[in-house]
């Protein structure tokens, strides 16, 4: 790193030199530790310690008041056989599997379209507005939009020969409603990220491809998309992880209903931990959430080499 | 620094037809994006009978502003804004200091265990925050911070691995000669950092401030678990409570409350849009 820099002090360094390294560098080391200190301390107390706590509590039966008792793997057995938790896992995976591909696909399409246009500020504002809005407000607005006696259902009933759909009251439609809101709320973020990625594509590459006779379609599939793929991969990992953590939207929109049709893993953890104060069961459920997150992320990294194009340096 | 250039002069041959088609599609898409907000405003200006009318019309007739004072007097939105602003302000200030210091050390000061620590930081980003929710709550109650803003502020300030990662990226993008020159001139690491590195980190700091602000402002689950007193509530928390009380029939009132919660933020976004979009792009590209 700084091996070649001479000692800044004018003192003769000969005797110190024999002891290995100059004092100033040893002093710098200490400063290095001091600089990372606050964050390391914070991470230890507020992240690592609670995380270890989750690992421990997952094997205990405790409601915060009575005597804590150790129950081995009972909590995991209980949760993995619980129909409510099974349903939460299924719903959460469905939300992730539906919203991530649709969301990313739409975002790429919009980003490519925007990149071709000169005037794009207004569009970016429109697409990004939901991103700066809190999920609570987003869910509050959509909850009323989706009313059975509301305007959206009224329009649908006018166009299609069906009764006005009761989005949030019908177990078959509620999860679709959650997915619609999820895509709507997160679309703008990926549009902005992909647009930035597209603008980083060197114009010389595009020019060269054009000279070789590539049309707009070939340019997209052979040049722009491959060059964007590392960013898309990164975004898909983030999008997957965050959709596995869906809580705010469903908490407000449906509170997990109707009949647990939109109950997600985090909603389940919240319900078990803070609705029923079964801290052990909630911790076990949260460790399972971590497991699912790690498995899916690992799988994404596993298949990326088939889809992601990295430039050789 | 990545930048989303808002206007892109491109040396491409213009095909007017495609441009028209693209604009048409984007206008339709853009309207779909903004419709819920427009509907929110229109609905908040309706009287109760209009909300129950058959068939529903989109436009309020007659216009009424009565929902706003009613919503504002039903719950302390002003107080919630104050809470949200000062909590976010403290968290931003604290995070900027601790994360830029840590990022600088990880990027430039070799010390024992630095690599392992940094990998540890990256690894914790994989852990969903909710995994620590129950023990975090127990820790806070042990500290006596439940139902106090301390529980939101202190941990957020001192434990943000993403912020550290981002600042490290920004420090790495600075030319090495910069801090080496200062060191050669006899400045210690502290002076080098504050006098030389920090001023040059300004773009990174402003990007981080925006990212942390958005994150903090919209945070819901942890405040929901940690705060009980209405006068301590942040804006999203208060809106959720309001929705729970009034969501049934008079939803014009709920839309007025939603408008109060969202419109100021949206106005701020429009004012600072260029900076905000650039920050989000930067973070999305992994701080490159």
TrEMBL record, chain A:
Region of interest (Disordered), residue spans: 1-21
Low complexity composition bias: residue spans: 1-13
Name this polypeptide is given: Sugar ABC transporter permease
Pfam family, one: BPD_transp_1
Transmembrane segments: 33-60, 89-114, 121-142, 173-198, 219-241, 277-299
InterPro entries given in the database record: ABC_transporter_permease, MetI-like, MetI-like_sf
CDD domains the record matches: TM_PBP2 (cd06261)
Keyword ATP-binding: no
Subcellular location: Cell membrane
Species in which this protein is naturally found: Ruania alkalisoli
One of the record's GO cellular component terms: plasma membrane
Gene Ontology biological process terms in this record: transmembrane transport
Residues in ABC transmembrane type-1 domain copies: 89-300
Membrane topology: Multi-pass membrane protein
Assigned keywords, A-Z: Cell membrane, Membrane, Transmembrane, Transmembrane helix, Transport
Similarity field: Belongs to the binding-protein-dependent transport system permease family.
TrEMBL record, chain B:
Gene Ontology biological process: transmembrane transport
GO cellular component entries: plasma membrane
Transmembrane segments: 20-42, 85-106, 118-138, 150-171, 192-214, 220-239, 251-272
Domain ABC transmembrane type-1: 81-272
Record membrane topology: Multi-pass membrane protein
Keyword Hydrolase among UniProt keywords: no
Gene3D superfamilies linked: MetI-like
Keywords: Cell membrane, Membrane, Transmembrane, Transmembrane helix, Transport
Subcellular location: Cell membrane
Alphabetized InterPro entries for the sequence: MetI-like, MetI-like_sf
Superkingdom of the organism of origin: Bacteria
Family: Belongs to the binding-protein-dependent transport system permease family.
Annotated protein name in UniProt: Carbohydrate ABC transporter permease
Organism: Ruania alkalisoli
């Amino acid at each position: 790193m700084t091996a070649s820099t001479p000692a800044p002090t004018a003192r003769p360094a000969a005797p110190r030199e024999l002891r290995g390294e100059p004092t100033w560098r040893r002093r710098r080391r200490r400063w290095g530790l001091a600089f990372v200190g606050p964050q390391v301390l914070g991470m230890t107390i507020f992240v690592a310690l609670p995380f270890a706590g989750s690992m421990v509590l997952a094997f205990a039966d405790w409601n915060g008041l009575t005597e804590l008792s150790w129950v081995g793997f009972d909590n995991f057995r209980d949760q993995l056989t619980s129909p409510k938790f099974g349903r939460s896992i299924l719903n959460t995976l469905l939300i992730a599997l539906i919203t991530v591909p649709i969301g990313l696909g739409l975002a790429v399409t919009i980003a490519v379209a925007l990149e071709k246009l000169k005037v794009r500020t207004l569009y970016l504002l429109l697409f990004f507005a939901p991103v700066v809005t809190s999920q609570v407000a987003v869910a509050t607005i959509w909850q009323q939009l989706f009313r059975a006696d509301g305007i959206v259902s009224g329009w649908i009933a006018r166009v299609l020969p069906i009764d006005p759909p009761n989005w949030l009251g019908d177990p078959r439609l509620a999860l679709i409603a959650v997915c619609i809101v999820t895509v709507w709320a997160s679309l703008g973020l990926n549009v902005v990220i992909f647009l930035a990625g597209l603008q980083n594509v060197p114009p010389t590459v595009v020019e060269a491809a054009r000279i070789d006779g590539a049309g707009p379609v070939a340019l997209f599939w052979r040049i722009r998309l491959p060059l964007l793929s590392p960013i898309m991969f990164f975004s898909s990992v983030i999008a997957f992880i965050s959709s596995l953590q869906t809580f705010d939207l469903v908490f407000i929109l449906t509170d997990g209903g109707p009949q647990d049709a939109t109950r997600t893993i985090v909603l389940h953890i919240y319900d078990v931990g803070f609705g029923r104060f079964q801290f052990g069961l909630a911790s076990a459920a949260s460790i399972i959430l971590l497991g699912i997150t790690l498995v899916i992320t690992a799988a994404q990294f596993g298949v990326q080499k088939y889809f992601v194009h990295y430039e050789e340096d | 620094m990545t930048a989303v250039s808002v206007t892109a002069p491109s040396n491409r041959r213009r095909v007017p037809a495609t441009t028209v088609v693209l604009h048409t599609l984007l206008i339709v898409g853009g309207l779909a994006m903004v419709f819920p907000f427009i509907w929110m405003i229109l609905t908040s200006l309706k009287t109760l009978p209009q909300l129950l009318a058959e068939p529903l019309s989109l436009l309020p007739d007659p216009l009424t502003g009565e929902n706003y004072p009613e919503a504002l007097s039903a719950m302390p939105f002003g107080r919630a804004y104050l809470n949200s602003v000062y909590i976010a302000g403290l968290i931003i200030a604290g995070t900027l200091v601790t994360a830029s210091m840590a990022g600088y050390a990880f990027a430039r000061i070799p010390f024992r265990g630095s690599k392992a620590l940094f990998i540890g930081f990256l690894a914790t980003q994989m852990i969903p925050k909710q995994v620590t929710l129950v023990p975090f709550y127990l820790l806070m109650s042990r500290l006596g911070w439940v139902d106090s803003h301390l529980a939101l502020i202190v941990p957020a300030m001192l434990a943000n691995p993403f912020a550290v990662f981002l600042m490290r990226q920004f420090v790495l993008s600075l030319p090495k000669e910069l801090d080496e020159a200062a060191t050669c001139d006899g400045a210690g690491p502290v002076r080098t950092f504050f006098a030389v590195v920090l001023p040059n980190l300004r773009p990174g700091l402003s990007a981080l401030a925006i990212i942390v602000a958005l994150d903090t402002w919209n945070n819901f689950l942890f405040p929901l678990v940690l705060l009980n007193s209405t006068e301590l509530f942040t804006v999203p928390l208060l809106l959720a409570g309001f929705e729970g009380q009034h969501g049934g029939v008079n939803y014009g009132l709920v839309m007025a409350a939603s408008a109060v919660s969202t419109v100021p933020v949206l106005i701020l976004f429009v004012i600072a849009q260029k900076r905000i979009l650039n920050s989000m792009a930067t973070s999305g590209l992994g701080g490159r």
